[in-house]
Structures are given as C-alpha cells and as structure tokens.
Design a protein that fits this description.
The chain has 149 residues and is mostly beta strands. Helices cover 5% and strands 50% of the residues. It has one domain: Jelly Rolls. The strands form 2 sheets. Strands 1, 2, 4, 8, 10 and 11 form a 6-stranded antiparallel sheet that branches. Strands 3, 5, 6, 7 and 9 form a 5-stranded antiparallel sheet that branches. The two termini are 31 Å apart.
C-alpha cells in the first residue's frame, strides 16, 4: 500500500529535479582521425534552457575503436566549442583489439547559466593513433535533459 502512495505522489509544484525537456540525436557515419588533439565526432545536440538556473544532464554513447590495441583514446564533451571537462575529458577508452568496436559512455550535469541555445558535442582525442567511430551497425547517441533547479 505504501508503494502505491509513493508512486502516485510525484513532485510538488515548484520543487526542483523535474525533467522539463529532452533533446536527443544520433550519428552513424563511419569516421576516423589520427589527430594528436581533440576532433569533433559529428555527434552533437543543442538545447535552449527555459531558466538560467536549470541544469542540463548530458548522456552519450559512442562506438569507438583504435588502430593499435591497448592504446588510449580520450573522449570529452564540448559546450559551444569549448572543452567542458578539461584535458582528461569524460573518460579514456582502451581497446584490447583493433578489430573490436567498444562503447565509450559518459554523463555529466552542466550548469549552463543561460537561456540561450547551448550546443553540446562529443569529441575524441586519438593520441596520434587512428581512432574510428560509428559505422553501418554502430550508432552513437547523445541525450540532453533539462532539469529544473
């Protein structure tokens, strides 16, 4: 009986934490780079917060592999063209095999402090090996959730 009560309550009006809007995008074009610095993957989405105090939860999944086994490929989130997470990014993907596509995933809660359109894009830093992402059977996705303050 208590479970039914909790399920029906929901959040009261004016309480933060509600999801106000969701934006998602996918990218499946096979791409690659041998750069020694960050490059755009093509996975991007934009959201316009309804209040400057709201947060944006960024979730992404990026199929990724590199040309040399056991070499790191760093992935990160860029906001309006600037690296949101610094030089170490959101994570490091190290593949065991050059033939296997692994999935780089991350989530991050951002405070954009604006009501202007904000673009989030996923970048990779191949560290001078050939990094490949996406392809015919490997689709990347990004989801942006506006969370009420």
């Amino acid at each position: 009986m208590a479970l039914t009560y909790l399920k029906s309550r929901g959040l009261a009006s004016g309480v933060g934490g509600k999801v106000l809007q969701v934006v998602s995008a996918t990218f499946s074009t096979q791409s690659e780079s041998t750069s020694a610095s960050y490059v755009a993957t093509g996975l991007t989405a934009s959201i316009t917060p309804s209040s400057a105090s709201n947060k944006i939860l960024i979730l992404y999944s990026l199929p990724l592999r590199n040309s040399t086994a056991n070499i790191n490929v760093v992935h990160s989130i860029f906001k309006n063209g600037s690296n949101l997470l610094g030089s170490y990014g959101a994570g490091i993907l190290k593949t065991d095999s050059t033939a296997t596509m692994a999935t780089a995933t991350a989530n991050y809660l951002d405070s954009p402090n604006t009501t202007s359109s904000t673009t989030y894009a996923i970048y990779v830093n191949p560290t001078s090996v050939t990094a490949q992402w996406c392809g015919a059977s490997a689709t990347a996705s990004i989801t942006l959730l506006e969370i009420a303050a």
